[in-house]
Amino acid sequence: MKRRDFLNVTVGAVIISPMLSSATGQAAASIDPPPGLIPTPVGEAGKWFMNEPTRIGWFTLRYSDALKPAARFVQEVADAKMNLLCLTVGGSFAFYPSAIPFHEWAPGISKSNDFLGTIAREARSRNIRLGARFDFSKQSAESVKANPGWFFTLADGTHPVDASGRTPPCINGDFFRKQAVLIMKEVVSRYEPALVYLNNFGNNLGGQNLPDPCQCANCRKKFLQKTGKALPQTMTDEVRIFLRHCTYETGRIFFDELMKLSPSTILINADTTPTHGWHSETRMVIAPSRLWLYITSEAVNRQRTSYPASVTCNNVTSYSSNSSRLVLMPGQETRMRLFQAIAHGSPPTYVATGTMQQDDQRDLTSAKEVFQWHARNEDLFGNTINPAKVLILTKPESAPRGRDIVIQQSLRGVYRILTENHIPIVVSETMETITQQPGRFDLVIVTPGAPIQGLEKFVSNGGRVLYIGEEPAFAIPAAVRVHDLTNVSYVEVKDQHLFPSLKGLTYLMATSMCPYTVIDIFSKAEVKTMRFIEYPEEKGTSLSFVPPMIENPAEVSQTDLKHTEIPAVLLRNHGTGRIAYLPWDLGALYDRMAIPSHANLLTDLVDHLLPKGRQLESDAHSSVEMVLAYQQSTGRHLLHLINLSGQTQNNYMDAISMGPIRISINGRFKSAKAREGNTGLPVSYNNGRSEFTLPLLKEYEVIVLE
Ligand SMILES: [Zn+2]
What is the Cα–Cα distance from 654 to 372, expressed in whole angstroms? Predict the structure, then answer.
């Protein structure tokens, strides 16, 4: 999940998915659509980030950390085998003797004590790259007094002040557009960072707790220019889009200036394009937010698959929340999340408040174990792609660091079923993944809100597509009606020929009780109904729709049960391809309830549609996550196995060792070597497949296939 869903908190509730309808939104805005969220490809000089075995220590410093010994900090980073040290360098406080007015020096900084200068020098001498993190969101009272026009302005003309006495600048004022650019350029020219990261880049972001739009002269003038209207005093969808435009325009100044000054430096802006990529964040789950076991995997998988020419990293955030920074994630979870990240192709990235001098050394020790494993086996990392043959198409992220939390359930359910069954998958939010390599995928699974333009051609040419809760634009008849239901309807299994795994079962749930609330770390939305789309009756359909009925009390339950021939699955040949379509949202149901019959139904349909069988088969327990990688520079296939069995409710214990695990993979590989056990696994061949057995899986393993 992306970290700050603030823009999505309210906007998310406005988005209406085809299958799950939530609250309807405000009137359409008269402003141009906001800029897209497509990251910029990195140039040749920036390819190191994904192609080399990068390991990132990411430190959000307190200003008091400038008093700590810088050389020792770098030595500890080196001992932990981190090779990119990203740390807060400036923005609100300068960790170096800045010459820019009002860029307040952190305690202890002087012309003769340049904390950042020492860090940069010590890092360079150990071949550790430097990442410069800027957060411009809090400025001093002196700065506000001297330049009130730079700052976020309330309706009464005053400026908001936080608990530390500081004020956020406005994205449209000359602090962001001039002064902050000078600060970035000062750091880049003095210390030559390989990465620049911009945090809290915009107005009304989550960390600022400012709900209403800034009323400064620049905002009012710009809003009038863009819409012909006066700027409202309270937040609206139109103002949110306006702010996306403004943030983009200011972000572009930074991007262009940085590329002029240092074309090889990578820029990650957390909140707007242009950016060389998006980072995602993994944080502890605090109830009532729901656990999402594959949060790290899916975020990295999606970015790597959708935007392979850009960068991504998943920041495993140590602190339990922004409001409890002294209490850290359980060490076992930290290791598991870092293993998920590296298996899917992210540099391992560990985020801490402060330096390596943590008050909870246990979590840091866990992180170091993964970094050291990565360093000992660094030939396995970098320059990899995920060669899975099943692609899930999903709805694009709705804002920087934001998703539609309602529709996300549909993706999560499908992702989880396939991963629990060891079916290798990639996730994309763009059709380009298919149009650029139409022959790459054996099966495409479409989830609600996914981009589907162009899929007809893919199917006509022999492609296989499974639509789940998203209507195909071809090959099926017009819908008879849409049932927006608040109670339970069912699917009746009429013919088990297509669904051997549903043996002994007659009914599956098609819609659940509504309304219900979806809660994510920063946002909340209500699902008012679930949908079943009715199509003309099909004699002999293998799954049929059963409308809601009397369920209570038990004595009279099912007295009005109706058997129908309304199809709950539609199967069609089209051109030389084939589609299957479930006109109800199996993914959202599995995400919430995890009823095994939904998983059985889905894997049976996947098997029906896969012409040459599954790419990977295994008898491993469902808590073993398997991830395929193909390393382009060496031509090796790598099978990552992550043992998730330590996950219990929302806690994490040590994983239970497992084995033997039998694995069968499509293709003929001469050798299979388990890296952790340092053992060759005897390979046998059967029908175009290579088969081998891993004797024991502890917490993590990579099997190298050559
Ligand atoms: Zn403003």
Answer: 19
